[in-house]
Queue: 2 jobs
Job 1
Amino acid sequence: MKRLILGLLLLAPSVLLAQINKRIFRIPEVTILGKRPMKEIGVQKTQMDSITLKENIALSMADVLTFNSSIFVKNYGRATLSTVAFRGTSPSHTQVTWNGMRINNPMLGMTDFSMIPSYFIDDASLLHGTSSVNETGGGLGGSVKLSTQPANAEGFGLQYVQGIGSFRTFDEFLRLTYGDDHWQSSTRLVYSSSPNEFSYRNHDKKENIYDEDMNIVGQYYPEEKNRSGSFKDMHVLQEVYYNTRRGDRFGLNAWYINSNRELPMLTTDYGEESAFENRQREEIFRGILSWDHMRENWKVAAKGGYIHTQMKYDYKRDAGTGTMVPMTRSRSKINTFYGQAEGEYYIGREWLFTANVAAHQHFVESRDKNIIRQDGNQAVVGYKKGRTELSGAASAKWQPNDRMGLSVVLREELYGESWTPVIPAFFVDGILSKKGNIMAKASVSRNFRFPTLNDLYFLPGGNPDLKRESGWTYDVGLSFAVGKEDVYSLSGSVNWFDSHVQDWILWLPTTKGFFSPRNVKDVHAYGTEWKGDLSLALAKDWNLTLNGTLSWTPSINEGEPMSPADQSVGKQLPYVPEWSSSVTGRLSWKRWSFLYKWCYYSERFTMSSNDISLTGKLPSYYMSNITLERGVSLKWAELSLKGAVNNLFNEEYLSVLSRPMPRINFEFFIGITPKF
Amino acid sequence: MILVAASFGMLLSGCMEWDYGEYEDFNITSPGLFITNEGNFQYGNATLSFYNPATKEIENEVFYRANAMKLGDVAQSMVIRDGIGWVVVNNSHVVFAIDINTFKEVGRITNFTSPRYIHFISDEKAYVTQIWDNRIFIVNPKKYQITGYIECPNMTMESGSTEQMVQYGKYVYVNCWSYQNRILKIDTETDQVVDELEVGIQPTSLVMDCNNKLWTVTDGGYEGSPYGHEAPSLYRIDAETFTIEKRFKFEFGDWPSEVQLNGTKDKIYWLNDDVWEMDVTADRAPVEPFLPYNGTLYYGLTICPRTGDVYVADAIDYVQQGMIYRYSKDKELIDEFYVGIIPGAFCWK
């Protein structure tokens, strides 16, 4: 009997898509298998396929998540900070791991997805809500799991891609690989740069036309360039793997980022671009050493890692002398040491036990502002702190028969000197019908998120008395998969989630003129997530794949009113769309491939009271991108020629108030893979 | 296939809907109160509201409605001179001049560093204070031009902070707030700082009473500040001699702010959880508040110069429309109305 793991069946389009480079399309037969991956019992997961991640070298993970998941990506501009709202939560409620190591900024709690080139990621998956407890704590919305993998090279390999795009955007990608029976080495380099001066009609302000007496005689909305938005980002990723072929694998992953970005001026800024400099520079090194020891029914693994982050923020102005003088000169350094050990043990085919413990030790030095003290000496406003974060989990997974699986996870975390109570998570899944491969899943978990180091210690405003946030999340879902080998495959899933978060931390202004975080809100986030994947062989050499997501995510403030006038209770959180959707369609014929990407976000409120004001409006928007690709096989190399059109319908849109976004723009890529 | 084609058709339809360019004509000649709503820093959603105390009508977003454009990012303050309202928009680096009846823009001065307050010396000269700049900008309001700068001593650009201004004779006094502890005295004829007076840490506001006494209140800094942290104080300063006459000390940890005067300038008011009132000649601070704390942190305060009504602003959670409470001088609640996000400053018309 042909067997196909049901979990993989849901990924059938990705299996298909992963093969696109070789232009071999095969739609696998849909059958049921007795054993599903035990690690994924009851897990709600969205897998990003490799063709999505490797679509073009100019994409960041923010772009990939926008068009391929139900997550709302809050985008502050092109090549600017991009954070996510997973299931209606805040950016720091999404935990992000890279090869197992958590990479959320310990000062800020969040991750900037615009700083992660998707070409550097070989495997990406979203673990929704409770499912993140399997990997890490603190993911009240969920987690994003990013990994790299051995290139499976045989001998030397080289790939070079160059991209040229609108607004004088240049992207370069180089990958060198080497592999034999034991060794795999990969070096990847990405360099992206652009002055990023895209044009847009600024409807937030007007230019005045004056007469000689300085009376306004006319006004118009100016056609402006995106000001102060240039960027130069370089990423280098070195990987070396050694496989003994006797069950041991050693790995080294080292990722260096050097980013130099201006922070774009707001649409409401009347300052002269040349009079100000607003720039953020970041250098990040992430390194991991890993060892996996695998046997027939057990596995142990260990990892050690290190992250160095250096952030430099400068806000300068020309004081009239032609010299830029700092108004704000902020420097921060973070050193994180990471260690992790894990083990898995199978008893027969019915039981799996796992245990893991991870430690992150952060050392943070934040130097935010230089001042002159009362005694005339210079001083720096900032803080220097360290924190140990331990997270340990044990799980038991039981699959007594073909139809059913049960899993229990117990996790506990230590942040500084504060332990969480035991975090329990329960998962169950079962096949309801073999016809149609209908499977039901359910899970429940508790979870906690500790305040970030800035929440606790930032000067001014840090609040060391903050409580950790806590929450319960419930998930239930159904999935199905049908198909006929080499004809079509269709799979889909729908799930309901319900999540309560207490003591939600918000930074609020104080009467002293600075912000300070407080535990202020209780939030009830709930809703449904729909996914569907279709692969269709239309005719000989013609293939179509469609992947779609749809989310409805009310995220409601259910806290106590902050004052008698508070109108926010019972309302949707600001900047969280209630509806979001994405569709990706790919039509392939021989070596041609046409890709259509579409996403939709419903109106986002900018006020907690959900008032629709003239000045605080973020209407819903649709975004469409297309790509046409042609593969060319030469004697000496494989060539790939690709043209992309972003914002196809030339939409004027905003993701965040006063942050301009580019209208229609174009990119062209040429990829060369020599045949050695 | 039909389904697929239909689905694609749906995807291609629709687009973001904007309603730009719609003007509204106002002509409100009655006296009233402007409220500058800061909006959220970096979101450009500052607004201007206008309240008619006689009819109790509130008009919100009047700048946007009259001009079909945004006011900008962080509306800090507003003053009126000769029928023109001057709205200082801090992080938009601009000061707008508007007709106070139609709310239409009549001009603007741009390219400030981070403007906070404007004070008129004459029709053709005004000072604009800044944060993150060690200079006070001199402007010509008639020509909407920056004409010069006043260098402030012992400040770098990074630690620069000048705030509210009051004038006594030819001298303008300005409190220096962020990581500062001084009141500066500026000669308006020479545009130079001629004297300075040390007070406590971070004086937040400055007014001058009927007896030509300056009043300022310090916030005392904050815990962990390298500049220091102390109990805040309210200071009475003689403008003539530029010396401290009286210091009223608060409890350590108090957060007083927003010193204001009534119309006759013989009573001062301030916020410190509650709303407080005191005669300008008092020797002791009151023990009972004028209006007790009602479960929220007040953010702004003003007194009607005509009636003595007290207006306090509640910014609530700072991401929704704030509420203004209007009390009579007998402490009766007369009215309450929603304005914009973070109502921080007032200007009487």
Job 2
Amino acid sequence: MILAVNTTSDTSVTEEIKKHAADSGLELEVIEAAGLRISHCIGCNYCWLKTPGECSIKDDYEIILKKIIHADQLWVISDTALGFLDHKGKNIFDRILPIATMYLKFGKDQMRHVRRYDNITDIGIIYRGAADSEYLERWSKRAALNFDGRSLGVFGTDRIKEAVSCMC
Amino acid sequence: MHVLMINGSPRVKKYSNTDKILDKFIEGLCETGTTYERYEISDRKQWEDIRKAYYDNNNILIALPLYVECIPGLLMEFLETLTPKGDGTRIAYILQSGFAEGIQLRCGEAYLEKLTGYLGCEYAGTLVKGDNFSIRFFEGDMRDKVTGPYTGMGREYAANAGFGTKECKAFTGYEIFPAHMRIILGIVFRTVGRVMFTKISRSWGCTRPLDYRPYQ
């Protein structure tokens, strides 16, 4: 399953993704997150050490978390700020900590947390607005390590068709 | 010199590792006669004061934990409210993480240099160091052993108005652990490490295994 989380208020982006995905016969689930209550991560470590796998913040992120653990791909659609994802887009990634355990390992020559679930998720980013795309590409590759996955790429909203081609 | 210090951690001050690092860093800074004012991003009630201090100061230091390879979302939310300065203000950073190897923090460090440009300021370098996860769990000498070295870096910063010296670069420690250390640490992670983390979790009232799967 491909999961797309749209943190922007622009649903035309997800409409276009849905259209191209349908043309390609992809199994796609879209979460429009702009209207959801999603806090930032507060770094409490409860999801690792007090209530393993559960976030202490009881908000709408749980809807996304329950989907991510079954998703083969996670695409985050985000506005940009200061050359990067804006805070709403970044919060989607910061809140993934419950999918990892407190346990550590060396994998792919990097120290990482051992994942909690069997599923591996690749990640992709679609951004709206000005961004340092070269840096975002670098960051996306790093961020994917937290899912034990790989980066599927970083695309501006003018390249949605290309992004969907990477969902196949 | 007067420095605006911002703790960019979203974790509340009491449990913030970054806060404990700043405590030690400031000890060294103050030995040189440098003065400072200090704020916490985790406390939204301070945001208006931080914004004012950002515009009023020309030496800024932001200390932050690495969150998913870059800056925490809450710090990003605050920074989005600022207007670029363009007045020669210098911003330096203390970037810290749980992961111990320097290579883990380089992507975040690269963004901080770019961020400084977006804020219309001059980049004064980043002090990069990992292996700080345990700070909140330690007290007294044990904590000082981890945070104490930052005092020397406070002196370095005060003397150079930034983190450009070779001493600051060397502060990171291992960029990548040598193979034999990785083998040893891998064994520790699978044995003693798991016991230690489980012990901490029990002291927090956790009754479940740490690899529990609540959604499956």
